[in-house]
Amino acid sequence: RLVKAQVDAAIKSNRLKPSEAMRLLSEYERGLKGYTYLNFHNGLR
Fold it and tell me: Taking a C-beta distance cutoff of 8 angstroms, is the pair 21, 7 a contact?
């Protein structure tokens, strides 16, 4: 996975702390698993 490799590189170069990296990856994964389609049911047509 490209994102994981980039996060690992950021940790090794001290651009991210491991705890920040874990949170970032967790949020990224959650976003991928979430509902990603547009919803026009709120009168936004």
Answer: yes
